[in-house]
Structures are given as C-alpha cells and as structure tokens.
Design goal:
Blueprint (H helix, E strand, L loop, with lengths): L1 H16 L20 E2 L6 E5 L2 E2 L6 E9 L8 E5 L28 E4 L7 H4 L1 E9 L6 E6 L6 E5 L4 E2 L6 E7 L6 E7 L6 E9 L5 E8 L21 E7 L13 E4 L2 E4 L1 E3 L5 E3 L4 E10 L4 E10 L10 E6 L20 H10 L6 E5 L10 H9 L1 H4 L4 E4 L2 H4 L19 H6 L12 E5 L2 E5 L11 H11 L8 E6 L9 H6 L8 H10 L4 E4 L5 E8 L2 E2 L6 E3 L5 E6 L17 E5 L3 E7 L5 E7 L5 E7 L32 E2 L6 E5 L2 E2 L7 E9 L8 E5 L27 E4 L7 H4 L1 E9 L6 E6 L6 E5 L4 E2 L6 E7 L6 E7 L6 E9 L5 E8 L21 E7 L7 E10 L4 E10 L10 E6 L20 H10 L6 E4 L11 H9 L1 H4 L4 E3 L3 H4 L19 H6 L12 E5 L2 E5 L11 H11 L8 E6 L9 H6 L8 H10 L4 E4 L5 E8 ...
Parallel strand pairs: 1-9, 3-10, 22-23, 23-24, 26-27, 27-28, 28-32, 31-36, 37-45, 39-46, 54-55, 55-56, 58-59, 59-60, 60-64, 63-68
Antiparallel strand pairs: 2-4, 4-7, 5-6, 5-8, 8-9, 11-12, 12-15, 13-14, 13-20, 14-15, 16-17, 18-19, 20-21, 22-34, 25-26, 29-30, 29-32, 29-33, 34-35, 35-36, 38-40, 40-43, 41-42, 41-44, 44-45, 47-48, 48-51, 49-50, 49-52, 50-51, 52-53, 54-66, 57-58, 61-62, 61-64, 61-65, 66-67, 67-68
Length: 1231
C-alpha cells in the first residue's frame, strides 16, 4: 500500500499543476504587501470619515464620505478600509511573532481605492474625497491613507473610527432547502455567541400566527484555516453563523383565482399579465420571518421582516422557475478593489435577479461563490450583495475550487485556489442538505425537479462514495412525479469548448465524464450544468461524444442523450473559447449571464439563457415522452479526407463506342513472365489518334474482353459497348509524351502484375466523365496466369505455427494446393492448404458489386506447425494438377517466431493506413496514397532488422475496386513473404450500412469485410469478428476491431479484457494494444472538431482496462499523421518524462501511427497538454525489445528511414506488479 500511496501522491501533484480552467486575475487584496507596511505619519496629512455612526435607521449598509489631504501626493496613494479599526501590530497573531518594527500589519484591509479615484486633482492639490459603501461586519472601521503604492505601503494618516449602532446585529439571511421538501432553513450571521444570546427565527404565514424556531450556532478560529492568506493577512473573525429549520411548511398552492393565457406559444394555467404588460405567475401563500436574538439580560435584538414562499411538494404541477449559474463572485458598488476587473459582471447578474425576483423560485450557485480566496471579509460582503435574493428564495450552492482546494486537505485537486479556506467558509456560511458538510454533494427536490448536486473537489469516479451517491440520486427519482432530472457540478464533467479544456485535449475536466456519462444515459438526465469556465455554452443532446438529435431549439419526445450546459459566466472575468467549432456545441456566448429553467407542467420545460447586462434571453424548449432509447449504430464523416478513389472518378456506365480505323494502340511484349516465371513485368504501350486531346487516357482492362458481353444480367444496357467493369489502372495519354496533344502520338510504360487473366489497353477520349472508346490494343497475358503468387505470412493461433496465404487461379476442381517447406538446407515436407473464394453476390453494394467487381481467383492458406523458435525455414507454394504435373512458385524463406518469453532481441514494425501506390505513376492523379511506396521501400531495405509487421487497418483502400487487392499484395510481397504480416480491420475494409458494422457509412465500397477476411489470415476465432491476440516472444499484442462495438458489456470488450488479463507479464512484459480508429488520444483536426480528441465513444470503456492491466502502449491508425502522448490516464499525464521512462509508467502511452501512405490529415492548431510529439508526414513505428527490462520505441519517416522521435522504457518485473491508480483495489485519491 505504501507504493500505491506514493502513486496517488504523484497523481495529486500532477493535478496540482493543472491551472484552473480560466484566468480569474489575482484577488485584488493579494496585491497589497501588508507585511511590508511602514509608518510614515505626517502632521500635515489627515483623513476624516463621516458619518461616524452608521445604521441609525436599522440599515446594514451605508455610504461613508472620506476627505483626506497629504503634503506629498502621488498617483499611487490609496485608501485602505480596516475592520476592526485597530489594525496595528498589537492585533497580530502571536504565532507570527514580532518580526518587524511597529506598525507592522498582519491584516489586509477589507477594501481599498486609489486616492485619485474620484478626485482627479489629488496629484497636484494633495486633497481629495471619496465615497465608500460599508456593510455591518460586526466591528468598527477606520480608513488609512497610504503612499508607496501596493507593493511598499507607508501609513500617512489614519481616520477617526466609524461603527454601526449595533455591530452585532443579525444580518444577511440565506434561505436554503432542508432535507425535506417542506423544510426551509435560514442561515445568518451575527456578532452574538451562544454565551451572549439565544438565536431564533420568528416566522409564520403572512398575516397569520407566528412561532419561533431555535437556531444552531457555528463559528471557527484562525487555526481552522489551512494556510495563507486565510490564516495570516486574510484572517478576520467570522462572527457567528446561525441556522434555523422551519418545518412542516405548506406547499405553494396557487389558490383559486385561475386564468388562462398564452406564454411563448404554450397555453398555461395560472398566468397573469398586469396593465403594463409585465408577465408573471400567481404567487402562492407566503411566509414572513425575522431573525432574533434574546440576550441574557432579557432584551431582544431583531432584524427586519423578510418573506419567502414555501417549496412545492414533489410532483406538484405548478409553474416552477429555477435560476442556475456559477462563478459569480462579488463586486463593489463603490468601485473599490476593482482595478483588475476581478468579477466585473457580478453586480449585473445580481441586479437582473433582483429585478426578476418575483419570477424566480429557487437559485443554484454552482461553485466559486465569492472568490474570497482566503480574505475572509469578502464572505460578509458577498452575503450582503445577495441578501435581496437569498433572503427571499432558496439560495443553494455547490462547492468549487475557490472554496475547497488546498494541498493535503483531502481535496481531489492539490492546488491552492481556496487561499487556505479549504472549504470551511463555504461549509459554514451556507447550509446545504448534505449528509456531511465536508462532503459537499447532495440532492434536493423542488416540485417537478430533482437536482443532483456533485462536489467536483472530491473524487466522483466509479467506485467512490460520491459515485454511489450520484447513482442513488439519479436512480431514486420518480420520473412520473419529477420528470425533470438535472445534474449540477462546478467543474465541467461533461463538455466545454473553453480554450483551457481544448488545450488539455479533453473538452472536459480531466477524468470528467468517463465514469458519469453512463449514469446520465442510464437514468436519462435531461440537463447537466456546470460552472468553472467563465462563459456560456450549450451542447446538443449528447452521449459518448455523439449528438443524439439534430434539433437545436424545440425538442419533442425522446432526447436520447443529455444536454450539457456551461453557465460559469455569473460574474468572474470571462474565459475564451477555442477557435475550433466542435460539432456538439450549439450555442456559445463570451459574455456574462445565467440560465433559467421554467417547468410549466410534467411535459413542458423552457430553458433560457439570459445576459446579465440586459436580462434578454435565448430559449430552448423540451417536451418529453416517458420512454427514451438510444441506437448505438452511428453514421459519421470519416476522420480524415483520403480523396476520391482514382477509379471512382471514371464514369464507366457513360462510356460510348467511338472506334476509328485511324487510331490504334499496341502493347508489347504480348507474353509476360517467360524468363524466370516472374509475376510482374513492364509493358510498353504505343498509341495514336487523329483527334488528340489533353484529357485522353489509357485504361488497362483485365480480363481483356471488357465489352457489354461480360456484363451481369442484373445490369442490362441498350447501347453497346457499354462497359460494366472499371479498368484496373489508368494513365493520361500525355503522361510521358508531352507532344501528344499536337502530334496525336505517344507511348507509355506500365507495370503489369499477374492477376489470373489477360489484359488489353484502351485509348479513350472525352475524359473521365464522358469516356469514348477510340481504340483497343492486342491482348497481353502472363505465360501462366493461374500461377501461385504473393504469399502472405501470418502468426497462427499458437506461437510455433506459421500460416502462408497466397492467391492463384487454380480452384479445388483443378489442383491440390500445398506448401513445401522445411529448415533451410534440411528435408522438406508438404502441408496442405485450404481454399476460399467468393462471388459477386458476396459483395454488399457498389462499386464492389458493379463496376469494381473482378474475379478474386482462389485464396489458399496452409498451416506450418511445430516450428523451432528462431529457426530459418525455406518454403515454396505448390499446386498438383490432376494430370499429375506440378506448378511451383519461387522459393521464399522466413524465421520462426521466438517462444513466449524468449529473451532475444525482437523487432516489431507497426503502422496503419498505408494503401498502395503505382511505381509507373498510374491512377495517382489525386495523390490517393502518396507515401505508400516510400514506406514499402523503407521496410524492404531494413527487412533483415524486422521480425514481424502489424498493418493497423485501412489496408489498400480498394474501396470496392477488387483488382487493387492483388496490386497491394504484389507490392508488399517482399515483406509479407519473409516476416508475419498481421492486419487489423479498418473502416475502408469493413464499413457498410446494414451489415453489422458499428459505423453505418460506406467506406468499404461494398466490400463489407469480405476481402480483408479472405485475402489475409488472422488468428481470430471468427473472421467476421476481427479481434484477436498474438504472442511474439516478450510481446503480447491485443488487436481490437473498431468496426464492431468494443464498449463495456459487448463480446469484444470481454475478449479485450481476457487478452489483457491472461498475459504472463513475467514472461511477456511488453503489453501492446492495437486498434484502427483512435480509441485513445489524437490531436487530429477532425477529432478536435468533434470535441473529443478521440473516436467518439472511444476510450470511455477501455481506459480502465488499459490502466488495470498496465498496458504499455496503445497504438492506432485512422488519422493520417503521427502523434505520441505522455503516459496518460483519464486525460491526466502520469509522468513528466518525455524520452527515458524508468519504473512504473502509471498510465498508457498512446500513439497514432496512421501516416504510412494515405493522404495526410492536419492537426488542430491547439497544443494539447498530453501531446509530446506530432509529425505531419508519412512514417511508421518500430519497437525493439532488447530483453525483459528494456524497450526502445522509434518513429521513422518513410522518405528517409531516419528516426525522428523515440523513447525508452527501463523497468523490472516488480515495477509491473506495483499498484498505480485504478490498477489495484478500488480507492479514492482523497483517502
């Protein structure tokens, strides 16, 4: 456990480095260097305050006029307000000692203002005046004129004392819902302790009999604070905080005077409109109350009379109006403390709420309450500011970082945002119906609403105490009575486009929604609302990064997801948005404002966002029906643009017959593969036409007969020679003959591979859109078109088994396929091969079933078993014809895999999205896979230093043009015939609507997985389910299939967990997870626009498995670039190291390596915190395991084969066993 505690501490340190989501500026009082104060009193300087007695009419706020003069005025002179009035060294905390000569100050002023603020002539005349607003804060006040600015303050003059008539009077009541719906709590502040007076509330129905309810009393001392400034210069005696419980209230029934009116298009009961046109809802019966203290001498001290309306009972069908915002802070009506616009919108928000108070029933202030940040006087000033609101309607708060966070105090984040308050002030100054005030999560019911309020400053993740509370809160709501289920929290556990979150690469609080989103979805949370980022934003209804509705304003019926709202613009300095327009963000506002929810009945909810400066609104309506469901099969745009498939640009069905005897095409040689039985040869094409054009082109067709006579019956056409097969490749007639346009003559050299049939070459005019056949060449054919070709090695289901897959033109009715093999130089043996093929009807759609179709021949696989580790074997492909003759391939060789755990150097190459290229330049007009040949070349050149290759999806981008698979297997033959070539399934192999793929798009061009599953062997249990594991020496590879559902509870999820859990890390310390789409992290622009930095629904389920089983590296393709992250877990880097990792990683390194060949995809301009290295270029990854303790990772560019990024991991077996966060038994960071 000691090791685990150290890991927790390390994570806390990482979290402590995370800055708050936006810059709030400094707390104004923190700019004053109180401890540097010196005494510079001058007889010629003075300051006078009037009136000296305040509150003569019982008020708790009054304006004071200051007049002052100085013989040496300066622009940085300032006035400080001190309370208590005696602020010299005599009041210092004894613990601080007398460090400097008097009048050393140890208390900051409660507010300040520059001397020239309202007296522009002060700098010249040395005289000025100032009006400041004071509130009753349980002590007297004095005003001090300072010179020397804030950094070197010098006391020039001190005023007379000012005091309220009764400084101890009860002030600033704050209502809050109790633990029962029919209970209202009243909290207030006074200067009377329990040894001086008995606190109570006198209350009752308006104009009815009154009763008294006693109040409990709390306070705290300086030692309750956790650090500076709360414990030092920011300390101020908080007085006494009293709370009384008013019970068994009658609900706010509307009464008998009912009218009907129309509100925003909805007909509602109980709406009234006055003569001036102002709308409101009829108020129910109200209660009056006043705060009282019975002194022990028998006298009473009273507040003024307030009133409130009791809450509706759960499920009550009446109009209910809720205001929600975060991060309001406090402001000063006199302009003091505001030199840096600390909370510049706070007063406007307060003003709007007060003006609309008759139309507000309850308020939720979701964290970052007043930004006292350890200057305790600010809490009194905040409660005074909100008194008109909080004394009239319940004012519910949530805990924010500026209330709670302090290192070593149990807060989830180890920063110092609370200024040493560590939650004490928020937990004492306001009542919330929590079971334990130190655990600031709670639920409250208000009529048709259920609110579940989380505490983001304590761990909320699955398995924690708070997680269990959240689930119980959501699950226990009776949605028939309370249809409106609202989740509230301070930090953004859902979605935000705030710049800071975007740069973190999360669009959420790190570790935010990963655990909670399944609860929101399961229990059908309507709206999740947050503060923390100081702006406003609303998302679509969303689940796992996918919008579940395209509607933006008027929702009817099933939402299928949760609407997420950031409403942190209550007052604190605004936060910027990222320039990226995320797909889920429906409305953003860089301004101050708040949200208002109005439930008209059980079926209709109005959501409004109002600006604080004018109170105007933007609306969204929700009308639900009881049953909701979610369809996980989605259709979306691809992550990166690959360009069109070149062959898809040819309008084959538009081809017409335009042969002319004056045009010709000639191909030579006509017989290929005569010399050494090669399966690839160059052909020279010569051609001429009387009417040349720049868009004339040469198409290569195979079979050579490509007229309408070969069309399937399902595609009848009227005008021959309509074509129904695309060429297998093409090139412009002027490609290597620039003079063609003028002379009508040209030549071209094309590389042809053996594809089991003959070839012809056709000259077309009219471009690709209106092709006209001008001339057709002689036929060209390989000496044996059916010869076995293009062997592909793959690991078998056992480590000592190698499979060989190849293609031929021999079916099982013509010949018996086999492999003749054995140790190099030893006696060979023969292993039979199985044979597969498929028909046009096996394809799922066009073009694979139409113009892209080409007979695939026969695909054979043989299993070479009981291999000796690391032994070199020779093999050749054979077919025994039924006339007893043999057809052979050339001889190849491979090295058998090491046994699991074998301690030898093992080298693995991994990449995705390579595709194919053409060395003759054909078909490449749009740079479809511009880097493919370079990657292939680098691997062939370094083949002696490669043991196994993983091609991580998007294999050849045939996209339904089946001829391209032969061309791809020919391209990689030098590699795949020598080392195992393992593939995974990508969207361009599998995806097609209605065929069981997780994504409903058409990326496979109608192949729907058939080609990939047939052309390559993988050791899957079921080829249709393309997930598998394979062991290679000290490596365990777990290969996922992102085109099938991988989420928790699925068959694939169970496979992934079994694969990760079953590895013996003592033998195979290097655990690698592979998948095509990015289930981890990527800064690709498309993912940034999605607002996820991952495949939607990607890592949410899997990251706990990666963490639990200590996956070293998770590697992906799909995005056509290279990127490496820090070791990371739940959006938080678990190590600051970048290149040389030693010991426990504490997280998984994520790598996108999808730049092997296909057209590159750009990164977002945001610099995400977890991204260590990015490269917008073609390349691949190489892993080298030297032994059980040392691994080298290298990223190489395809254009030169040089290493551009690398890191090492050095560790012992005990480092793998060591516990890290969420890899051992459940616990919480706070523990």
């Amino acid at each position: 456990m000691r090791g685990l505690e150290l890991v927790f501490f390390a994570i806390l340190l990482v979290l402590a480095t995370l800055q708050v989501a936006i810059s709030h500026g400094e707390q104004p009082l923190s700019r004053i260097a109180v401890h540097n104060t010196r005494l510079r009193l001058s007889e010629n300087a003075d300051i006078r305050a009037s009136p000296s007695i305040l509150g003569l009419k019982g008020q708790n706020s009054e304006w004071v006029t200051l007049e002052y003069a100085s013989p040496n005025p300066s622009n940085d002179d300032w006035i400080g307000v001190f309370s208590p009035a005696d602020f010299s060294a005599s009041t210092c905390n004894p613990d601080e000692g007398s460090k400097q000569s008097p009048p050393f100050l140890c208390t900051a002023p409660i507010k300040y203002q520059y001397a020239n603020y309202s007296s522009p002539g002060y700098r010249k005349e040395g005289k000025g005046s100032l009006r400041l607003q004071l509130i009753n804060q349980r002590s007297d006040f004095s005003f001090v004129l300072f010179s020397g600015g804030l950094a070197n303050p010098k006391v020039v003059a001190v005023s007379n004392k000012v005091a309220f008539t009764n400084p101890n009077a009860p002030v600033y009541p704050r209502l809050a819902q109790g633990k029962m719906w029919n209970e209202m709590t009243v909290t207030w502040t006074s200067g009377y302790g329990i040894n001086e007076a008995e606190p109570f509330v006198e209350w009752g129905r308006k104009d009815g009999d009154l009763m008294r309810s006693p109040a409990g009393t709390l306070t705290f001392n300086r030692n309750s604070m956790c650090g500076a400034p709360a414990r030092t210069v920011g300390w101020r005696d908080p007085g006494f905080i009293h709370t009384s419980f008013l019970k068994e209230l009658w609900p706010n029934s509307v009464g008998n005077d009912l009218v009907f009116s129309t509100y925003n298009g909805w007909r509602r009961r109980g709406y009234w409109r006055d003569r001036e046109g102002e709308g409101g809802f009829k108020e129910g019966e109200r209660y009056t109350y006043k705060l009282g203290h019975k002194l022990f001498n028998g006298t009473y001290v009273w507040s003024r009379v307030y009133q409130f309306r009791a809450s509706p009972y759960p499920g009550q069908s009446s109009v209910q109006r809720v205001v929600i915002f975060g991060d309001m802070g406090k402001d000063e009506a006199d302009g003091s403390n505001e030199y840096n616009n600390y909370q510049r919108g706070s007063l406007n928000t307060t003003k709007q709420l007060i003006e609309d108070l008759k139309n507000i029933d309850i308020v939720f202030h979701i964290g970052d309450i007043c930004y006292a940040n350890g200057y305790l006087s600010q809490w009194d000033q905040f409660t005074a500011q909100v008194e008109p609101i909080a004394s009239t309607v319940p004012y519910m708060i949530a805990s924010g970082n500026h209330e709670r966070d302090w290192p070593g105090t149990g807060s989830f984040y180890g920063n110092s945002d609370s200024g040493g308050e560590c939650g004490v002030l928020a937990e004492t100054m306001f009542y919330v119906p929590a079971e334990n005030r130190a655990k600031f999560w709670y639920s409250t019911d208000y009529g048709m609403f259920r609110f579940c309020i989380a505490d983001t400053e304590h761990d909320w993740r699955e398995g924690t105490e708070q997680y269990k509370f959240i689930e119980h809160c959501l699950a226990s709501a009776d949605r028939q009575k309370q249809p409106w289920l609202i989740f509230l929290a301070h930090r953004v556990l859902g979605y935000s486009s705030g710049t800071w979150y975007a740069e973190e690469g999360s669009f959420e609080e790190p570790m935010g929604r990963e655990s909670l989103q399944k609860l929101w979805q399961k229990y059908k949370v309507d709206i999740a609302m947050y503060g923390h980022v100081h702006n406003y934003e609303r998302t679509c209804p969303i689940y796992q990064n996918i919008c579940t509705s395209k509607e933006k304003f008027y929702y009817k019926g099933i939402l299928n997801g949760t609407i997420h709202v950031v409403a942190g613009g209550g007052g604190a300095s605004l936060a910027d948005f990222t320039p990226i327009n995320t797909t889920w963000s429906y409305f953003k506002d860089h301004d101050y404002g708040f949200v208002k929810l109005t439930a008209f009945d059980h079926s209709n909810l109005l959501f409004e966002y109002k600006k604080s400066r004018d109170g105007k609104k933007r609306k969204a309506k929700i009308s639900p029906i009881p049953k909701r469901q979610y369809n996980p099969v989605i259709s979306q745009l691809e992550t990166s643009s690959h360009g069109d498939h070149p062959l898809s640009r040819i309008a084959i069905h538009e081809a017409t017959f335009a042969l002319t005897p004056l045009a010709h095409v000639k191909a030579s040689p006509s017989i290929l593969g005569l010399t050494t039985g090669q399966n690839s040869e160059w052909v020279t094409i010569e051609y001429s036409t009387p009417s040349p054009s720049v868009d004339d082109w040469i198409g290569v067709f195979s079979p050579a007969n490509f007229s309408a006579s070969t069309c399937p019956s399902e595609n009848p056409r009227v005008y021959p020679p309509l074509l129904c097969s695309a060429p297998i490749k093409f090139q412009y007639a002027s490609y290597s003959s620039p003079q063609y346009k003028d002379t009508g003559k040209g030549s071209l050299k094309l590389q042809i591979i053996n594809q089991r049939s003959d070839f012809s070459f056709a000259l077309f005019t009219g471009g690709f859109l209106n092709p006209k056949l001008v001339a057709v060449s002689n036929k060209v054919v390989f000496s044996n078109p059916n010869a076995p070709a293009y062997p592909r090695l793959a690991q078998g289901k056992k480590w000592d088994e190698m499979t060989v897959t190849w293609t031929s033109g021999y079916g099982i009715s013509e010949a018996e396929p086999f492999v003749e093999w054995g140790p190099k130089g030893g006696d060979p043996i023969r292993s039979p091969a199985g044979t597969l093929t498929f028909e046009r009807s096996s394809m799922c759609g066009a073009p694979a079933r139409t113009v892209g179709w080409r007979d695939p021949g026969y695909i054979h696989t043989s299993f070479l078993k009981e291999l000796w580790p690391n032994t070199v074997y020779a093999y050749k492909l054979g077919h025994r014809l039924f006339n007893c003759t043999y057809v052979w391939s050339k001889e190849y060789q491979f090295k058998a895999p090491p046994y699991p755990g074998q301690d030898s150097v093992q080298r693995v190459v991994i990449f995705g999205d390579m595709g194919k290229g053409e060395v003759d330049g054909s078909s490449e007009y749009n740079d479809f896979q511009p880097g493919s040949l370079n990657t292939t070349k680098q691997l062939v050149q370094d083949l002696k230093n490669i043991d196994i290759v993983f091609h991580n999806g998007d294999i050849c981008y045939a996209n339904g043009y089946l001829s391209q698979w032969d061309q791809f297997t020919a391209q990689i033959e030098p590699i795949a015939s020598s080392v195992p070539y393992m593939i995974s399934s990508g969207n361009h192999e599998r995806d097609w609507p209605g065929t069981g793929s997780f994504y409903g798009n058409m990326d496979s061009g109608g192949e729907c997985g058939v080609l990939a599953q047939t052309m390559f062997y993988t050791p899957t249990e079921n080829r249709e389910k393309f997930w598998y594991s394979t062991d290679y020496g000290m490596f365990r590879f777990c290969i996922a299939d992102t085109e099938h559902d991988w989420r928790e509870g699925t068959e694939q999820y169970k496979f992934i967990e079994h694969c990760l859990a079953s590895v013996d890390r003592q033998k195979q310390p290097w655990l690698i997870f592979l998948a095509h789409r990015v289930l981890g992290y990527s800064s690709d622009l498309s993912y940034a626009i999605e607002g996820s930095f991952e495949e939607p629904m990607g890592r949410e389920s899997l990251q706990k498995l990666w963490q639990k089983y200590k996956v070293d590296i998770a590697m992906f393709g799909h995005v056509h670039n290279y990127e490496r992250t820090c070791p990371i877990y739940q959006n938080v880097c678990t190590s600051k190291e970048k290149h040389h990792y030693k010991g426990t990683l504490n997280g998984t390194i994520h790598v996108a390596a999808g730049g092997a060949g296909a057209s590159l995809s750009p990164f977002t301009t945001l610099q995400t915190a977890w991204s260590l290295y990015k490269d917008y270029d073609h390349g691949f990854v190489k892993l080298t395991a030297f032994d059980h303790s040392n691994l080298l990772f290298e990223y190489k560019k395809s254009r030169d084969g040089k290493v551009y990024d690398s890191f090492t991991i050095s560790r012992d077996y005990r480092d793998i066993l060591a516990c890290t966060v969420d890899s051992c038994s459940s616990t919480t960071l706070a523990s």
